[in-house]
Each structure stands twice: as structure tokens, then as C-alpha cells.
User: Fold these one by one.
Assistant:
Number 1:
Amino acid sequence: MNPDRLATRRLSLRIGTRQLVRDLDLEIRPGQCWCILGRNGSGKTTLLHSLAGLRPVEGGEVLLNGTDIHGLPRRQVARQLGLLSQDHEDVFPATVLETALRGRHPHLSPWAWEGAADTVRARAALAQVGLTELVEREVGTLSGGERRRLGIATLLTQDPRFLLLDEPTNHLDLHHQIEVLQLLAGLARTQDKALVMVLHDVNLAARFCDHALLLFEDGRHGVGPCAQWLTSEQLGRLYGHPMQWIDGAAHPVWVPA
Amino acid sequence: MKKALLPLLSLLALAVLLHGLATGSLDLDGPTLWAGLMGRDALAAQVLWELRLPRLLAAFLTGGLLALAGVLMQVLLRNPLADPYVLGISGGAASGALAAMLLGLGGIWFQGAAFGGAFGTMLLVFALAHGRGTWTPARLLLTGVVVAAGWGAVIGLLLSLSPDGTLRGMLYWLMGDLSQARPTAWSGAILLLGLLAGLALARPLNLLAGGELQAAALGVEVKRLRYGIYLLASLLAASAVTLAGSVGFIGLVTPHLVRLMGARDHRLLIPASLLLGGTLLTLADTLSRSLFAPQQLPVGVLTALIGVPLFLYLLQRGSARP
């Protein structure tokens, strides 16, 4: 009846008096990998949180499989949609495995404990991001990059259809940036997941994503295939700085002129 | 350690209760204790059933209530330094209780004044912190701390207005004192309610401990959960201070002690904290009435005297682990 879709209809977002997004129509389908690009403060995170139904919207609506996301119980949303937030708040002690297992929460009935199958899933997710050796470690002892990969493992353990990621490559070294994005983009292809990632690196976005959402300074936006929007002209307009395209390597790159 | 924690703590609780029954200004040996409990020794029976057992139960109840309230407040405020009193609950209760003492009220009026002060403070802090919409842990904490400071001034005022005769009772109440405490059915019921509700909310609490945004993204109705634990923690703390005055330290330190013993999952942390909080306060109370018998000390003095070295020891040992 309702095919898997994460969509917005005439979505408007405002912070204070500043209009971040106006009348955004968006449709995200399984198998797609989206990037959200824009300058600091252009509303990327606000948009991502709005897509996850975690903040009220100033106009229009966010639809998860055809239903207004604010009308759905949070647990039901969390079974289909997960969020990797920009930062991690660890005030109380927990181990790496305990933290990853939190991803199972929306799938477990209220009084149930995580079973062997959940632990297997969490360990597999930790292995995918290269944290197998650290499963019993305290979260507080992890490095920034390791903590980031643990956040991604928690999201993989949650196993939603729609994965929203706020700067997933934060704190990651070059090797892990590529590895994590390969893993995530692979999910869209092989498991029919839909990904929406806030990214700052245009070249990573061009290499791993197929759709782009550009948030311009003036509240306008651009939505569509990467081939259409990731051009020197549009990127120059987006960042307010001329961009130069360099062809030749295995992956063409943009550099600020 | 984790699997054995609850049975071990239960055994410890039982041992401390038995020790408390046998100890006091009249020490009872094993056979006399048994005879007293069975009613075959009239004097022992009177001491046990009318004095010691009610007081021990009151101590255990109070300790359990405080420890549970402490666990909930720490998650609610996402602050390991939070305790049941941080939002002004004990200040409100103390102001009510001291005013009642000053007016010479006793019994149900006295308890009503303490509970009313505590619960009124809860509503006041809630209304002030809530404002128009946003209710962040930082705002709630600041509001509570300021309201608590206000109550501190009221307490100082009441103390300075009081005649010398009532001052000692007031000071004992402020430090926490179980000598007049009797267990009541409603405080037992509130403890049971707290335990069951806490267990039902345990997994969402684990998630809330990892941040509100992340908890919401993982399917927790954060707003509803916060209201629920605020109400529950306040109710638990208000019941505890109504029973025994502002007993310090138990609510702050018990959750950390249990975490240092390896229980961080709230499904284990909540029942284990209840048991350990009850046990610690029972032990402290037994010492408070036996160390300088027949002179009785306010139990709040002993909770810190036992708790501080125990906590520091576990902290040292915990930090030495890889």
C-alpha cells in the first residue's frame, strides 16, 4: 500500500527569524544515497533532525511511508528510521557492546532483555566498523574516531530502513573515512537501505552519493541527482567561493580556487 | 559478579537487619533474639517488636527510597553529582517540618507539613523550569538549585526564630534522624511503586543516560519519560524526608557504589541500589544508636562516616582497573 518512502511536502524550517528551508519537496527511496551540503549554519542538522521527526517543523510535513511522522509512536519510527547525531554524550559508564546493544531497543518488547540473536547482531555491527577488539572496553576510554565508529555500529545494530547521519566522517582518519562511507554506500546497494548524510567534503559526497540536497545561504535549495547539482557553478554558489574541477585521478576532485 | 550481585546484596541486607535486631543499648545473643522474636521472652519481644523492628524497617525503607530517587535524578539531570535533594525537595520538606515544630504541631500534621513542603517544591520547580516549552536538564537543575537556596534561607530564619528547647530536635531532623521514625504502609507502597515503575522504565532509562536526542532517535518518548521520572523521583524523595528528615549521602553515593560494583544497566542498577541504600542506612542507624549508647546520634552523621571511606575505596579500586 505505502511503499517505503521518506518524504517532505512543502517543508519549511525556521530558527528564530531565519528561514532555513522553504517549501521543500523531497522523496527519499530505498537504494538511494543522499548527501546534504551547505555552509555552517545553513540548516543541515536542523533538516536532518526534522526528517527524523525529532523537532517540530515550522511548515509542511515529513511523511514516513505516507504518514505524518509526528503522528507515529516513536518506537514505530525508530524501527524504520535511525539517526547518527553529530556528538555523543557519555556521562555514565558503559561498555562498547552495551552501547551498541541500545540499537535493539525499538525492536524489543518493553520487558524483554536482549537475547543471543541481538548480541550476535551487535557484535557483527562492531566488526563491520573494526571495533571487534574493543567490545568489552569502556566507552569513556575510546578515541574520538573509535567513538564515532561505535555510533555507526549502534545505528547498524538498530538496522532501520532509513539511515540519517550527521557528519558520519567526523573524527575519522582518511582510511576510516573511506571505509565507513564504502560500508554505508554499500548498504544502499546491497540491502536496499536509504541513506541521508550531512557531509562537508564535496569530493566524498560526489564519490559515494547519488543524490544531493544543497542548502543555499538565501533559504533556497537544490534537490536532485548529483550529476545535476554537484557542478563547479553550483558548488561555487553554495559555498560562496569559486570551485575548480580537476579531472585526471581515479576520482575527479574539486578544490577551492 | 553481575549475576551474583542481587543475591549477595540480599544476603547483606538480611545480615545487617539481624545485626540491627541484636544490637543496641541491650545486646541480645542468638538464643535470646530467637526467643524474643517467637514471643517467649517478654522483655526481648518488647524491645524487638516494638522498638527495633519498626525502626529498622523505617531505616531500610528510607534508604531504599533515597537510593532509588538518586538513580532517577542522576539520569533525569544527566549529572552524576545529582542527588534526591538537588532540586530543593529536602529544603521544602525541612521548611514545612521546622515550621510545624515551631508551631508545636506533631504527628500527622508534622508529616503533612514536611510532605507538603516537598511536593509543593516539586510543583514549583517544575512550573518555573518548564517556562514556555523548553525544559533542558541544565535549566531544571539551575531552577532547582536556586529554589533550594531560597529554602536554605527560610530554614535559617526558622532556626533563628526558634526557642532553644526545639532547636535540638530541628537540627537532628535536618541531619536526618530515625529515632522517631516508624514505617508506614504508604511509604512501603511508594517504594514498591518506585521499584516496579523503575524496572518498567529501565531500558528507556539506559537510553536516556546516553543523551536525549539519541534516546528519542531510538524510540523513547523522551518528554513523557522525563515527566514520569521527575514525578517518581520527587515522590520517592518526599516520602523519604517525611519519614526521617534529610538524611544525606545515601541518595548520592549508593547509585555510584552499585555502578562501581559493575551494575550499570538500570534493570540491575535499580533493584541493587534499593537493596544497598536500605542496607547502608540500616547499618548506619544501628551504629548511630549503639556506638555511644544510650546517647543516640543523628543517622545522617553516620551515613557519611561509613559512606565516604567505602566510596573512596571503591573508586580507587575501580580506577585501577584497565
Note: Residues 187 and 250 of chain A are 23 Å apart (CA to CA).
Number 2:
Amino acid sequence: MAQAKKTQVSMTVNGQPVEGLVEPRTLLIHFIRENLQLTGPHIGCETTHCGACTIDMNGMSVKSCTVFAVQAEGAEITTIEGIANPDGTLSALQEGFRMMHGLQCGFCTPGMITRAHRLLQENPNPTEDEIRFGIAGNLCRCTGYQNIVRAIQYAAAKLNGTEFKEAAE
Amino acid sequence: MIPGPFDYHRPDSVADAIKLLAELGDEARPLAGGHSLIPMMKLRLATPDHLVDLAGIGALKGIVRDGDRIVIGAMITQHELLASETIASAVPILRETALLIADPQVRYRGTIGGNVANGDPGNDMPALMLTLGAEYTLEGPSGSRTVAASEFYQGAYFTAIEPGEILTSVSIPVLPAGHGYAYEKLKRKIGDYATAAAAVVLTMAGGKVATCSIGLTNLAETALLADDAAAAVIGTTLDDASLKKAAEAARAIMSPAGDGRGPPEYRKHVGGIMVERALKRAAAVAR
């Protein structure tokens, strides 16, 4: 078919109302990165596998390469840019990734942290197995999973006000 | 990885969606969670001119108990299935299976209606629906009709849905108290389709199998109901000989393709093993 007509979309991203004119085929990740210039969410595989494009949409972790921007009309969205504490200090998860060396090349990190953010909202005190199952939609090609899991455990402990203890090797 | 152009429609009732599909004709596709369709569109394997998004239709969103059946709206996501007390208590195998589908992000978006209606032999829900004796409600320009899951699947991506129809709900008979169940899925990694999978629902009486049904995923062009395999264990204590017989009967109807998950011989081999494991685990759960 010929060019489809453009559609106005509006949503709330990191607490700010935003809008734009998009083709219906515009993927949400492209709208976020190109229209909104929020380049934290990454494009990794673009085939719904890797999770680098994960954002939080209406309280759910979503691979934004597999949602059209028009489907996000009216949505409440949080990207990695909206994860830090309101005063600009690192959130517990960001601090955990820093302290536990939860990143190597850093490409998967925005998706990992955004996904872990929702995981800890739903399950504030996850077991190691629950963390691994909960981040199964996010791939780290540095294969740094051990420290990613530790980073999430660190954040959970901090948010729960308990002391982070390394599991015995 | 940019899909072809299309026009987007978001009706707020089933009647409006059906009307739109009728007006727009063959080049319109309904959009549910989009986690099969959008990847296909990005690869340009699907190039619909119109998408009719069902996400705005509240009537497709419920999970209700209706007498001796559980009725699930087509737009209920896998995540919502997992969160449902009704599902956990009345159809626990549905919860077990949903947990084995894809990954968390996909489960937040992927719907039961899309999973069963797409006709993808790799999807997990069709074999389960065959095993459970589920029925699908299809609504179209000439009204509503009910089709048994066992009559629905005709070939890969080829189902009983007529052009212009939408699958609006899935209805599952409530299982007897004390039934045993298991969904055994062999996959290379989380998020992958099954190399082979088997669903079993059974009841036991006096240490013997009283009733049994078995479904198979990704072992033919469609999900399969393995009637002969189920018949092979009824009246037995699930001794080794009966388990072997069931596995062989199941293998006899499998015709998997060879792909990255293995050659057909391997997939049939492990398919039989999935049947044995699912039978054993289902019997262990039964009371």
C-alpha cells in the first residue's frame, strides 16, 4: 500500500507528557530513541529476543521493539532515564550494578535495570532462581550474569533495609 | 527491521472490530499482543494493509467461571493467566504451561487468544487446549459460533477461522478435583519453542489410570491429540511397559520437521520421552 497516514500519539514518559506524529508502523523503540531522543533503551536484536530495548509500560516490562508507538497511546512509560532517584542520585538498582560490577560492555544494562526494576516491584524479595527466571528475557552477551544477579540482590536488600550477604560459593 | 506501512484501527467493541474487518477485507489483520505478528511484519513475512487492534475491547478481557467451565477472554495475557487465582485453582496446568512460554516481557504482552488462534505448531497452548477439551468462540459477520479445539487446527497457520472472524474466548471444562497434570517441554533455552512437548491430564482410581488425555506440541504441522497413547495407559498402573507403549503410540503420529532443534528422528525420540515424563509426573500429582 502507499504511505499510511500519520497518527498523533501522546503518552507520559518518565513523568513528562510527550506527543508526536508517527506512521502507524513506527516501533515504540524508534519513537523513544529518535523522536524523544532518549537513547538509553538500546536496539540489540530487534527480534524480540535480547531485551536491550526493555522499557516499563503501564507497570509491565515490555520489549519496545515489538510494540508500535500507536499501541502506547495514553501509556505511562519509564525508560532507564527515569530510573534514578528524583534527586538525581543512583537508585538502589543502579547502585547495585555499580557496586557489584553488574555490567561489562554495558549494552544490555538499560534493559536489565529497567526489567529488574519491575521484577522488584512485583517481588521485593526474590530468590536467586526467581531473579534468573525474572530476567530470562534479557541477554548479556558478555555473559556477566553472576554479577547482574548479585546487583539485583544488592538492590533488593537495600530496598528492604536488610544487609546484602553474598551467598557462599 | 521496519514493517511495511499499514493503517491502524482501534475499535472498542467486538461488533466494531468485526465491522472493520468486513469493510477492510483480506488485507486487514486483527492484532492481539502482537508478539507473533509484529516480528513477522518486521521480516515482511506479513504485510497487512490494516491492523485492527483488539486491545481497546474490554469485553475480551475477563476470566470467569461459568458453571462447569472456565471462560477466558481472548485478550487475557499470559501474565494475567499467571496472576489468576481462578486459573491456579481450577486449571493449574494452564499456569504451568504459561510459565514455559517465552520470557517475562513476552508474557506481559502475549495473549491466550493470539496463541491459540495463530495456528503456529510451535505455540504451547494449542496442544494443551486439545488435551483439556477446550472450545473456542468465533465471532464474525454472520454471528457467533463455537468450534472445538480438536476441530480447529487444519495445518500450520491454517485454522477453522473464516476471513472476518475473530476468536473472542476460550472455554475450558473445569477438571475433576484430584486430577493429575503435567506439561513437559524440552527446549534449548528459555524463550525457545519446544523441541518437543507433551501435555497430560489424567485421573487415577485405585492406583490405576481411570481417564487420560495427551497432547503434543511442535511434533507435526499442528498440535496433536495422542488418543492411542492415552488409551494405552488407561487401566494400567503406569508400569514401565505401559509407559513405553504410550510413548511408541505417540511417536507413531508424530511427523516433526527437521530444523535447528534437531532432525525428525531425534525430535520423535524425545517427544516420546516427554510423553513418558508427563505421564509419570501427572500421576504423582493426582490424588
Note: DSSP finds five helices and five strands in chain A.
